[in-house]
Design goal:
The protein has 1 helix and 32 strands. The chain is mainly β. The protein has a domain at 315-422. The strands form 9 sheets. It has a 4-stranded antiparallel sheet with strand order 2-3-4-5, covered by helices on one side.
Length: 422
C-alpha cells in the first residue's frame, strides 16, 4: 500500500473489517493448553481490533460506511467513507472517535463526490472528485474544510477531465487527464491552478496516449503510453516535454508491446511486455533502450503459447512473480518465481507438475511475502515465503520457508499466534 508509512495499526483499526491478532514474538513451547508449537508473524502482530467510530448509523439501510483509499499524513489518516447525510466523501481520523471527522462535503447533501486516487505529496492529499458542477477533477486538501479545494478545472464546466494514475515525482504530482484541447495525456501540478501544466501532448490533438502505470525508479518517471505508430510501450519523463520520450519499442512498429505492471526494484523498473519472439514476458529497464532487456520468458522458443507473467512484487532485492515455465525439464504450471534482475528461479512448485498453484494477492511486509495459493488438496490457503539472507539458493528446495496459515491457537498468556508449524 502506497503512502502508509508506519501507520499499519491505525489503518487496520479504521477499516474495522480486517481480523488482526496480537501475536507472540518468539516460539511458544508446545503443551496441552496451546497445541503445536507456534510462531507469530511480527509483520501481522497488532493489538485487538476496535471500532473507531460508527459513521453510518441509519438502522433501516445500514450497509456500513465502507472506508477505502486510506493514506497517512503524519498521525492523521485520510480516507473515503459514506454516512447518511453526506454521501461518500473525504474523512480523516487520528484514531479516536472525536478525531474522526468529515473533512468537507464536496458535493453537498446525500449525493457523492466519490473521492478516489488519494495520493500524498508534500503534506497534502491529492485526489479525484466530482462536486456536481465541475465534473470529475483534481482536488487537494490540507485536512481542513477551507483547505480542501479544486486544483484546476482542466475541462471547464460539467465535463470531467478524469484525473488518474496520480504519482509523486520529486515533490510534484504527476497524473493523466484530458482537457478540451487534448486527449488523455501526462500532466503535472504544484498544487496551484497556474502550476498545473501539460507535460507533453504525446498524441497531438484530441487523441489520447492514455499514460498509465506511473512509477518512479532511478530518478525517472516511467509510464506506459500508446501511439498509433508504436502501440502501448514504455516511456519515461523528467518532467519536461523534451525529456518525455519512448524508452524502447518492444514490438517494433505499430504492433502493441502491451507493456503493463510497472514495478520498481532498486534503480530499475520491471514490467510485463510483449515482444514477437517472447510474447508476454518479464522485462527490466534502466531508462535506456540498451538497458531494456528480457529477464524471463515463460516458454522460450514458443512465441504462440499465450503464457504471461503476473503479480510482480518486490521484497528486499528480490522480485517475486507468478508465471509458468520449465524446471528440471518438467513443465510447471502457474507458480511462484523470483528474480534478482539477472537470474530467475522457481521458489516452489506448490501444486506439483503441470497443475497450477495460482498464487494471488502477493503482499510483502516485514521480510515476509504473503499470498494465497492452492496445493491441489487443501484448496486456496494463505502462505508465506521467508526471505533468506545471502542471496537465493540455486536449488529451489532450499527455499523452504513456505508455511500454511492454520487456525490461531491461544498461547499461555491468552494471545493468539497467527502462523505456526505442526
Amino acid at each position: 500500500m502506497r503512502n502508509l508509512g508506519n501507520h499499519r495499526g491505525l489503518l487496520l483499526g479504521l477499516a474495522a473489517t480486517l481480523a488482526v491478532v496480537g501475536g507472540c514474538s518468539s516460539a511458544t513451547p508446545a503443551g496441552p493448553e496451546n497445541g503445536p508449537s507456534a510462531t507469530a508473524s511480527a509483520a501481522l502482530g497488532f493489538a485487538a481490533p476496535g471500532l473507531v467510530r460508527d459513521l453510518y448509523t441509519t438502522p433501516s439501510a445500514n450497509t456500513g460506511s465502507a472506508p477505502s483509499g486510506l493514506v497517512a499524513v503524519g498521525n492523521t489518516v485520510f480516507f473515503v467513507a459514506q454516512e447518511s447525510s453526506s454521501g461518500r466523501e473525504l474523512w480523516k481520523s487520528d484514531g479516536t472517535p472525536a478525531g474522526t471527522q468529515l473533512v468537507r462535503d464536496i458535493r453537498p447533501g446525500v449525493q457523492d463526490s466519490a473521492p478516489s486516487q488519494l495520493t500524498v505529496v508534500g503534506g497534502f492529499v491529492y485526489f479525484s472528485a466530482d462536486d456536481g458542477s465541475s465534473g470529475r477533477e483534481l482536488w487537494r486538501t490540507d485536512g481542513t474544510a477551507a483547505g480542501t479545494v479544486l486544483v484546476k478545472d482542466l475541462y471547464p464546466g460539467v465535463s470531467p477531465s478524469f484525473p488518474s494514475n496520480l504519482m509523486d515525482f520529486n515533490g510534484v504530482l504527476y497524473f493523466s487527464a484530458m482537457d478540451a484541447s487534448h486527449g488523455t495525456e501526462l500532466w503535472r501540478t504544484d498544487g496551484t491552478a497556474a502550476g498545473t501544466l501539460l507535460v507533453k501532448d504525446i498524441v497531438a490533438g484530441n487523441f489520447s496516449s492514455s499514460p498509465a502505470d506511473l512509477t518512479v525508479a532511478g530518478g525517472r518517471l516511467f509510464f506506459t503510453a500508446e501511439t498509433a505508430t508504436t502501440g502501448r510501450e514504455l516511456w519515461k519523463s523528467d518532467g519536461t516535454a523534451a525529456g518525455t520520450v519512448l524508452v524502447k519499442d518492444l514490438a517494433p512498429g505499430s504492433s502493441n508491446g502491451f507493456v503493463k505492471s510497472l514495478t520498481r526494484m532498486g534503480s530499475r523498473v520491471f514490467f510485463v511486455g510483449f515482444e514477437p519472439s517472447a510474447r508476454l514476458s518479464l522485462w527490466t529497464s534502466d531508462g535506456t533502450a540498451e538497458g531494456t532487456r528480457l529477464v524471463y520468458d515463460p516458454t522460450p522458443g514458443d512465441p504462440y503459447d499465450g503464457a504471461t507473467v503476473e503479480s510482480p512484487t518486490v521484497m528486499g532485492g528480490t522480485l517475486y512473480f507468478v508465471s509458468m515455465g520449465k524446471y528440471a525439464d518438467s513443465h510447471i504450471g502457474y507458480e511462484l518465481w523470483a528474480s534478482d534482475g539477472n537470474s530467475v528461479w522457481l521458489v516452489k512448485d506448490i501444486q506439483p507438475g503441470a497443475g497450477s498453484g495460482w498464487p494471488k494477492q502477493l503482499v510483502a511486509t516485514g521480510g515476509l511475502l504473503y499470498f494465497v495459493a492452492s496445493d491441489g488438496t487443501t484448496g486456496s490457503e494463505l502462505l508465506e515465503e521467508r526471505r533468506h539472507g545471502g542471496g537465493h539458493a540455486a536449488d529451489p528446495r532450499h527455499l523452504g520457508g513456505l508455511e500454511q496459515l492454520r487456525p490461531p491457537v491461544p498461547d499461555r498468556r491468552g494471545r493468539r499466534a497467527l502462523l505456526h508449524r505442526g
